[in-house]
Amino acid sequence: MSQPPPPPNEPPKGFGAPQDPSPSSGQNPGGDPEPGGSGAPRDPLAKDSGAPQDPPTQALTPQDPPTQALTPQDPPPQGFGAPETPAPQGSGTPEAPAPQAPAPQAPAPQGFGAPQGPPPGGFGAPQDPPSGGFGPPTPPPAAAGPGYGYPQTPPPAAGPGYGYPQTPPPASPQQPYGYPQTPPPGQPGYGYPGQPQAPYGATGQQPNPYGYPQPTMPMQPQAQQTGGGRKPNSQLLIIVAAVVAIALIVGGGVMYSQLSGEGGDKHDVGKSGGVTGGDDGGDKGDDKKGGGEEKAPADPKSSLLFQLPAPAVPKGLTSVNTVGSWLTDKVYAKTGNAEINGYDPNTGAKTWTVKLPGPVCQASRHTTDANRTAVVFEPAMPTKTQPSHGCTQVAAIDLDAGAKLWTRTVKSGDQQINLDNVTISGSTVAVGSTGGGGAFDISTGKALWAPKTSDSCYDSGYGGGEKLVAVRKCGEYGSTRQLHIQTIDPKTGTVVSEYKMTPGIEYASIVSTEPLVVAADVGDTAGDGSGISDFFSIDNKTGELRAKISAPGKTYAAKCDGITKIEFCKSLAVGNDKLYIPTEEHEGTTDYSRTNEIVAFDLATGKQTGQRADAGDGYDITPLRMDGTSILAYKRPPYDKGGQIVAIDGTSFKETTLMENPTTQSTHDAEMSMLPEYAEFLYGDGRLYMAQVYANKPTSATDKAYLAIAFGTK
């Protein structure tokens, strides 16, 4: 089995370049191969015209008697192709280092006709995925065991060693590394504001101080190719996307919701918490808190609090999904195999278990003030003969009580919809997919609204947090496709404001809802699988574009997956009316070392502020979330150091070390197996939790696999 990527600053081993990580559902579909440099951003496209779509209210009906019959709406459109990952095998898929391209599965019978061949053009960007038709994404290969990160004796006169590029990523010759060229004028040409629409179905939120990153289904790390950086093999992504791309004929079916009967109480209308944009980063933070709540300890050196063993993988499967982790003042909660467990945050002792009939597919990274969250899961356990039962169930979870409050489904006609994403804003749980979605009260499970779908427009998903924002797709795949970024009222679905992106942009991700920041790959120019070529700063009150930020994938390390997981963005943070993103790794100042920086962009002007936080030789720095006006970041260490948590002052950019982890081999190995690009990172009150989103079947009896590890300074 291939080894995970080495930590920075490791001397070369001289045994060739390992393979790139296989693409995952958390990555963008294949684009062009990486360009030779960051280059200037593409010219803005012409502003386009046309009135926004009128999204009338969609009806929802309860599943359990008595039935509440509401007016049915137009049939939902289905997806127009396949995601970049091959047809997944549910929670159990082979551990091949690179995905194969099996024939796409037929969609659930919903009257939409047989799949068609791939669109003309062959190796272009994939079309929209079918409505959850492929089940959970394909899991990655397992990470390596102990010994990772410790160098062999470097050979004499060797070139760049294992995992390190032969040449560093090029920088702009005019400016220091990480500074892009000046964007061209005419930024508003990338889109224009639209007038608020009529209600089409049914804000406020305080950020979660612990900053849970958006759950995803990424791969676990494998060894990287010579060439360094953290980007996937874009050529491989192109091939996979082209092979599995299909088109579905949109058929009939009335979109409505049915509620499966499980209780719900009458309280908890508090504001939802959590980060509003990425892993790994993307927290907007509360700027009114000043420097933040996380204080530097007298001694930042941490100790290992506990390690949670990976759950057993059922017979006939190779892995199970374990996406989802949350941190409150009472409990650390983590998804296991078809269950969610609560643990004592200091000792790791299990305090409660919520059993589910099938594995969790997606989990909201937000919580309410009363520490409630939501997950999407399968109705039954996958088997070798039926690797997926579809991600059709949504449930609310009380993290303090350790209880499931209710379970609901969304239907199109008489078929349950496979749900791609779930989020929370205020007391509203919103679920979405290409086949439709809905919204429920988190306390009672009452259906609040559903988006109206038609032959031309549908909501592909939602971003939550302080506001609720929909990504609404209109038009066919290609040059006529237009994305509407709509801020909506969580309780009624009323459109508050709307921004129309330039036609031809296929996917967009919600980085933050307050302030509103959207990421997109404009014209498939990212070229690195990150899903980002530009960020859009939008006024969520007026729908007007404030600024466009060019962020070439060759230069910056943030990534988003706007295909199905609308608010899955990693390695970034939003706060102080600024966007904070890391640069790609480049050569350090010492032999064999690699390093990077965090830089800041002004959301009002779209320009860099000149602020930058250096990782230091051998370290790689990644934003985790905001803490008041400070940025919390994780420093992935070199082979002979422990990882660090630092607080970066939002004004001076001075770094304060909050935690430095042990360097003992076994502890270091466990830490290095969980990279911030793929794992779930939570930090709060002097404790750091790292968790996997998959549990893989051990390759030998001596393998040590962990579901989560925790460090603490007190």
UniProtKB/TrEMBL annotation:
Residues 193-209 have a biased composition (Low complexity). InterPro entries: PQQ_rpt_dom (IPR002372), Quinoprotein_ADH-like_sf (IPR011047), WD40/YVTN_repeat-like_dom_sf (IPR015943). Residues 56-71 have a biased composition (Polar residues). The keyword Cytoplasm does not apply. Keywords: Membrane, Transmembrane, Transmembrane helix. Residues 329-451 form the Pyrrolo-quinoline quinone repeat domain. The chain crosses the membrane at residues 236-256. Residues 281-298 have a biased composition (Basic and acidic residues). Residues 1-231, 262-303 are annotated as: Disordered. The keyword Transmembrane applies. Residues 1-11, 96-107 have a biased composition (Pro residues). It comes from the Bacteria. This is PQQ-binding-like beta-propeller repeat protein. It comes from Streptomyces triticiradicis.
